[in-house]
């Protein structure tokens, strides 16, 4: 089963097959339980160009259609991935600092129907054939909205996989995964999931709070892989208790992970 993984070493290695990416998701929550979802999905221009050339070599030479990862129709279709009643509003192609991608805006009327997938697999798929992904194998953040003069949102996170198979974390000793090329590839690569509340947060047990924003997940892979000792710690250390896990994650630069279950946010 897919899990929200704390030990990301093998996950980082897997990204070499999909290229450097950024996936930023912000959910704006109104006092009545409605809101908007803003999602930006970007990949490095170098990788996009490489795959474009590769795809072109196998495509129809008479076709004038330009290869692109970022088809607006796919983002319109992906509205249902966020839950029932989510509607695509608008989107735009974005290009900045060696990255290109798509920024999409969605709207919803009922936060209780919203779900967020923490892993970006589907968003950064290179589209080299159909993938059979079973719905029941995907885990999400779920939300419960309680109306009131002081509204409350309760967030239930995915389960944490503490035990990682040795096969998953095995790294070939002869491969210098910490070399300059690897580090360069990881620069700018990140995943962010942030909740932004209308008004003022008056009470919460969330760990990462800044003003009206709560961060559920923030992974800056470029920062994480800068230090070889950090990766060794990720590889070898597997705390068993949530309390130990919280202290462990705090030591990792570039990583924010909400471990409380559930998280409660009251706002007005």
How would you describe this structure in keywords?
268 residues; 22% helix; 32% strand; 8 helices; globular; 5-stranded antiparallel sheet; 15 strands; 8-stranded mixed sheet; alpha+beta; disordered N terminus
What's a concise summary of this model?
The chain has helices at residues 9-14, 45-58, 72-77, 166-169, 180-186, 221-224, 228-236, 242-250; strands at residues 4-5, 21-29, 35-44, 87-96, 99-108, 115-116, 141-146, 151-156, 160-161, 190-197, 201-204, 209-210, 213-220, 255-257, 263-267. The protein is of the alpha+beta class and 268 residues long.
Helix-strand blueprint:
Blueprint: E1 4-5, H1 9-14, E2 21-29, E3 35-44, H2 45-58, H3 72-77, E4 87-96, E5 99-108, E6 115-116, E7 141-146, E8 151-156, E9 160-161, H4 166-169, H5 180-186, E10 190-197, E11 201-204, E12 209-210, E13 213-220, H6 221-224, H7 228-236, H8 242-250, E14 255-257, E15 263-267
Structure description:
The chain has 8 helices and 15 strands. The protein has helices spanning 9-14, 45-58, 72-77, 166-169, 180-186, 221-224, 228-236, 242-250, and strands at 4-5, 21-29, 35-44, 87-96, 99-108, 115-116, 141-146, 151-156, 160-161, 190-197, 201-204, 209-210, 213-220, 255-257, 263-267. The longest helix has 14 residues, at 45-58. Mean pLDDT is 78; it is low at 1-18, 126-134 and 164-174. Strands 2, 3, 4, 5, 10, 12, 13 and 14 form an 8-stranded mixed β-sheet that branches.
């Amino acid at each position: 089963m897919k899990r929200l993984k704390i030990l990301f070493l093998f996950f980082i290695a897997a990204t070499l097959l999909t290229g450097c990416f950024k996936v930023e998701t912000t959910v704006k929550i109104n006092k009545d339980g409605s809101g908007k979802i803003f999602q930006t999905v970007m990949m490095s221009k170098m990788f996009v160009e490489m795959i474009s050339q590769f795809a072109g070599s196998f495509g129809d030479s008479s076709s004038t259609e330009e290869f692109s990862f970022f088809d607006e129709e796919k983002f319109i279709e992906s509205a249902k991935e966020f839950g029932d009643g989510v509607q695509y509003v608008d989107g735009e192609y974005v290009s900045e600092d060696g990255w290109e991608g798509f920024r999409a805006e969605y709207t919803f009327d009922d936060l209780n129907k919203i779900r967020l997938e923490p892993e970006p697999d589907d968003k950064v798929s290179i589209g080299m054939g159909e993938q059979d992904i079973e719905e029941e194998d995907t885990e999400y953040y779920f939300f419960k909205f309680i109306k009131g003069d002081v509204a409350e949102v309760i967030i239930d996170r995915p389960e944490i996989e503490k035990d990682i198979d040795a096969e998953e974390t095995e790294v070939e000793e002869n491969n210098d995964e910490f070399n300059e090329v690897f580090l360069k590839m990881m620069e700018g690569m990140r995943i962010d999931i942030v909740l932004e509340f209308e008004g003022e947060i008056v009470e919460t047990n969330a760990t990462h709070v800044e003003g009206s924003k709560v961060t559920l997940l923030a992974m800056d892979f470029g920062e994480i892989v800068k230090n070889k000792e950090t990766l060794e710690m990720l590889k070898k250390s597997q705390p068993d208790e949530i309390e130990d896990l919280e202290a462990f994650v705090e030591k990792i630069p570039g990583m924010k992970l909400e471990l409380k279950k559930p998280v409660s946010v009251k706002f007005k």
